[in-house]
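Journal club prep — side note

Before the paper discussion, L.F. wants everyone to see what a predicted structure for a comparable chain looks like in token form. Sequence:
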Amino acid sequence: MIRALLIGSLERDSAVVADGSVNVACAPDVPEAIRMLETGAAPSPELVVLAESRGGEFSATSLALVRKQVPLARVWRMLGTWCEGESRSGRPPAACLATYWHQWEARMARELERVRQGVNPSWTLPVTATPDERMLASEGTFDRKRSGTIAICAASAAAAEALEDLCRAGGFDTLVAADEGRFRLARRGAVLWDTTIGRMTDERRVAELRSRAGGAPVLAIVGFPRAGDVELARRLGIAAVISKPFLAGDLMWHLDRTIPPAG
């Protein structure tokens, strides 16, 4: 069983995917986490998850104190909305994995699936592994046993073509329609809607697209949504919100979870 220590508070829908293969201990801050480790209230973790709501919430000094307690544990930072500028102007701590809150559920679920299959999760790679090496290790290969039809609605022909290639590589049939175009899903499947946050949260547009989809789930692909945007979209009937940029495996995970199994 994977032992994980979660430090910090979480944004909505970014909880650790804790199933029977994960034992999660939670601490609101670093001092409490250290107390739990020193007293044995939390078992020694192999994975430390830092839930960062803003940049600089966990200092290098506090992170060093945690690492002193569990030197062999990997550190995975779950970044909140206010951390999105870090890649351009921030100074992220060394030897840490990092995932934004809207990517977390898919990424963690895929890592747990690797564990269930007897494959080491990507966080066990050496701390010197590059982001590209970690991405390649986590993606694996596509399972082509999928079935169903994916309707792709996008204003950009380039985006539609890329999504079509990706879905076909994953084993799905596809049909492409303009953002405002008409289509009909004759088989079970889903709609991938490459759009903007404004359109995704427009009640009229969402209702029209869901009507054209004929009851098939609609998955929206947008750039860096906020938690409130995701909540509103779900209230309007969007089955899932996928943030750009995304990994191919992230998209397949959402489709696999959304489309009911054949038969």
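L.F.'s comment for the group: The CA atoms of residues 173 and 213 lie 16 Å apart. Keep this in mind when we get to the figures.
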